[in-house]
Each structure stands twice: as structure tokens, then as C-alpha cells.
Design goal:
This protein is an alpha+beta fold. It has four domains: 148 residues, no CATH class; 61 residues, no CATH class; 60 residues, no CATH class; 74 residues, no CATH class. The chain contains 15 helices and nine strands. The longest helix has 38 residues. The two termini are 56 Å apart.
Length: 366
């Protein structure tokens, strides 16, 4: 055990030694990069900028190359930072934050104050502290930068052949924090049986958030055969989606603003108004009775739940309170699209029944 402890200590010491050596090389690279910017060699070689040349020829990302140039240009203004790095008190990552801060605040740059903060914090935390510093020396400029950053928000939604969507985008610091703050509570595991990984929970939370803040208000065109899920029936149709399954239409019809257009033999036979199925006093009574999602172990509050018909309306179920139960978006989807069943016991307790699982037959004799 003692030998192992000594070996681990030597490993840790070697890692620190290597990191300090790498940081010193990074500083030298940064100083040379700043000189390279002035050389115009990159221009003669046909590159659009010196960072573009560094990115391509030194195998770096654009951000990494820009950071080295920024540090190199600011080295002369940061003697205390260089000394602290060579002493092993801070790392090169601190230097990149220091340089960006110096560029942002100009003459208000107080290196002595920031070096002391850097010594006490990791690079990530130091970046956070520097943002506070930037606000303290020029709050108007800081606010203007945040407002300008918000103008770069983008979101792309590209649909795949199977109807699923790919999302790519960028959110400014404030907007991203707002979205994350809204998603985090919804992305928590829903009980001990929730085995979804965090990325899936975050994606489900985004869908749930959109459905809660803006309840589904859309027109769905369907045949009667589709609503009844008869064999051979086509999917339903809506404006922004590929054909929709009968189970999804069934879930939406439980408790949403849905304009339905029913077809029979290509002829419109009914157009229903877009109004909530469960609303007003009935919804308030349902909320007061159930208080939260009634799936065992789930406590998603009533305001985030749909009203679910235990016996679906197309199968003869009505809007009586006894036939209604609160379900969160995920568990509502489990019932309709997932094949789960709900049974209400004598005392009103909800019992869940998992869908049947088909196992393959055992292999017969050869």
C-alpha cells in the first residue's frame, strides 16, 4: 500500500511538471503567434487571416488559435500573470481569460487584482469572476455586449426522412440560462423506474415544456378508421409532420386544443372546434382531486399534466370525473403510444399494466 501511495504521488508530481512545461510552451507559442500576425506571411499564402493559417497549419480550432494570438499581444501588459504562471500558481488557461478580459475592459484593466483572483480559482471559475469584474468596471458595455450576443441566437430544425427532427442552434448566455432553468426541473428522473439517460430526459423536457407553455393547437385530418385504429387505415395528417399514428391522435384528443377534420370516403363529414376537452370547473375539480400525475411514483404537478380518459371517448368513455385522471406528458405518452394500460381500483388507486412482451419460441431440436 505504501509503495502504491508513493507511485501515485510520483505520477501526480509528473503530471504537474508536464503541465507547467506545456504551459510555458503555450506562452512561447502565443508570443510567436502575435509576431506572426504582423508578418503578412499568412496573407502571401492566400489565407484570409492569421488565425485561419494557424488553424490549418498548426491543427488547432479557431477559438484556440485566437486565444493564443490574444495572449501573445497582451503579454507585455501582463507581467504579474506571466510570473505567476512560471511559478506554477496559475496556468495558461488563466492567461487566456486574463487576455480576453484585458481586451474587453481596456484601460480599466487591473492585473494585480485579477492575478490574486486567478490564484484562488480554477480557470472556469476565474472566467466567471472576470465577467463580474467586467460588469463592475463598465456595466453599460457589459449590457450592450449581452444584448448584441442575443442577436446571434439561431435554431435550425431539420426533418429526417422518418419525420424525426435534428436540432442545432446557439443561444446567448442569458437566453441559454433561461432555457436551461426551465428544462432542469422537468429533466429530473421521474421515480426509481425512470431509466432514461440525461440527454433523453432533457429532450423530453423540451417537448414537455413546449406542450405546457403552448398547448397543442393544430388541425388534424383523420379518417374514422384511423381514430378507431382499424387495420388498413392510413395515418392522420397535420401541417408540420409526416403522417401521425392513431395513438398520437388519441392522446391529443384526450385533452388538447385540436381542430379535427373527420373524413369518410374522401368526404369531410365533421369539423370539430379547437377547444380543450377538459376545462373550467371540471379541470379545477380534477386538479384538486389528483393534485399531480397519478402514475405510481410520479409527482409532476397538476399544472404540467394532461387530463387522460381512462376509457377513450371513441370507445364510449365520457368526460365524467370518474373517467379522468391526471398524467404528465411522458406517462400520458406511455399509455397511448407505449401500450401501457391504466386500471382504477375500488378506492380510486391507479394500477399500471405493462404492455405484453412477446418472446421468441425456444429453438427446436435439430
Amino acid at each position: 500500500m505504501l509503495l502504491m501511495a508513493q507511485s501515485d504521488a510520483e505520477l501526480a508530481s509528473r503530471l504537474r511538471e508536464l503541465r507547467e512545461y506545456i504551459d510555458s510552451l503555450e506562452l512561447e507559442f502565443s508570443q510567436l503567434s502575435a509576431e506572426f500576425v504582423e508578418s503578412k506571411f499568412w496573407d502571401h499564402k492566400g489565407f484570409s487571416s492569421p488565425t485561419d493559417w494557424l488553424r490549418f497549419n498548426c491543427h488547432m480550432t479557431s477559438n484556440a488559435a485566437a486565444d493564443r494570438v490574444a495572449v501573445g499581444k497582451r503579454v507585455a501588459d501582463m507581467p504579474e500573470s506571466v510570473q505567476a504562471m512560471r511559478a506554477g500558481d496559475i496556468g495558461f488557461s488563466h492567461m487566456t481569460v486574463m487576455a480576453r478580459t484585458a481586451n474587453a475592459v481596456g484601460e480599466a484593466f487591473d492585473e494585480h487584482k485579477l492575478v490574486e483572483i486567478a490564484r484562488e480559482n480554477s480557470p472556469g471559475k476565474f472566467h466567471y469572476k472576470c465577467l463580474h469584474y467586467r460588469h463592475s468596471v463598465n456595466s453599460k458595455q457589459y449590457a450592450d455586449e449581452q444584448a448584441e450576443q442575443a442577436q446571434t441566437n439561431i435554431l435550425h430544425m431539420n426533418r429526417a426522412e422518418d419525420g424525426s427532427f435534428f436540432l442545432t442552434g446557439f443561444l446567448d448566455a442569458v437566453g441559454g440560462a433561461v432555457v436551461r432553468s426551465a428544462l432542469e426541473p422537468l429533466a429530473r428522473p421521474l421515480g426509481k423506474d425512470d431509466h432514461r439517460m440525461r440527454p433523453q430526459r432533457m429532450a423530453d423536457a423540451l417537448v414537455e415544456l413546449a406542450g405546457h407553455k403552448q398547448k397543442i393547437q393544430m388541425q388534424v385530418t383523420s379518417s374514422i378508421e384511423t381514430l378507431l385504429d382499424l387495420t388498413g387505415a392510413p395515418g392522420a395528417e397535420s401541417e408540420f409532420s409526416l403522417p401521425i399514428s392513431s395513438k398520437t391522435v388519441e392522446r391529443w384528443a384526450c385533452d388538447c386544443s385540436l381542430t379535427r377534420v373527420l373524413m369518410q370516403d374522401s368526404v369531410v363529414i365533421d369539423v370539430g372546434r379547437a377547444e380543450r376537452t377538459i376545462r373550467g370547473p371540471k379541470r379545477r375539480a380534477l386538479n384538486a382531486r389528483d393534485r399531480h400525475c397519478q402514475w405510481p411514483g410520479c409527482e409532476r404537478p397538476a399544472s404540467w399534466c394532461d387530463g387522460h380518459h381512462i376509457i377513450y371517448w371513441q370507445h364510449g368513455g365520457g368526460d365524467e370525473l370518474e373517467n379522468l385522471v391526471l398524467l404528465c406528458a411522458r406517462h400520458h405518452r406511455n399509455v397511448h403510444e407505449g401500450g401501457w394500460q391504466l386500471i382504477k381500483g375500488d378506492e380510486g388507486k391507479i394500477i399500471t399494466v405493462a404492455p405484453a412482451t412477446m418472446f421468441g419460441l425456444p429453438r427446436g431440436p435439430d
